[in-house]
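tool_call: predict_structure(chain=1)
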Amino acid sequence: MIEIFKTNIREAEQVLKALTNIFPDADITSDPGNGGQLIRVEAPVIHSDKIISTIKELGFECAVQEDETGAFWESSFIEKQTMWGFEPAESTILAKDFFIEEGIKDILIPGIGYGRNAKLFVDNGIKVTGIEISKTAIDLAKSHYGDEMKIYHGSVTAMPFDHHLYDGIFSYGLIYLLDTEERKKFIRDCYAQLQPNGYLFFSVISKQSPNYGMGKQIGKDRFEATKGAKIFFYDEESVKAEFGKYGLVDFFEIDEPNKVMPDKPAFRFIIIKCKKEG
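tool_result:
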């Protein structure tokens, strides 16, 4: 099990030491969050009340981080099931071709959903491991594809779920649903799980997409068109700012058609490639 706690802690060393003394069998780490450190606890059983009370006794605020995103996607998959059909996105086809060209055989897909993009890799001899926040989506993947893919249940903000190093990591969308600190952590965590000479292959939505600016603006280039779905739109500047120190080797824009509703205008996406030097 993994639980994330939000706090107003600035320096987490004292708190991590105290929690580790109380829960010696737990893996306890911290990462920057909005307003303080996020405390990540991984253990077979997590005593949330004791963790919260310990942190409060040390003079800090603490609460379990509410998973608004998880609730949104779980309800979406319950209601709409295989909402994007089974045809892979154009980004996935490009990633498959690139991975085959580079001899990549073992990949991680954070936000794997019900596997409609992952299946293309499996069909081309690439081993796939996934991460998915929605239990319903994982059940859908198993019902359609069996046990071909190992899928961890949880949020990408709680990465890593294993300590395996992958040849490649493919992320379609997903990152643009995260806030600034979460995006930084996600890229850092993905890069850390690459083999030397491995590749990140991200597909993110562009400011040139026709849905840019729709909904309530909640930050620079970030909008909430549907409650629970907060989207950050990328451009050249933000791609370089967020991926530049992680071996950025190429990025370019593509049209990403809506394959379920082909009469709708295509979205505009940016393909991002990063290489971890050996």
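agent: The chain has eight helices and 14 strands. Proceeding to next step.
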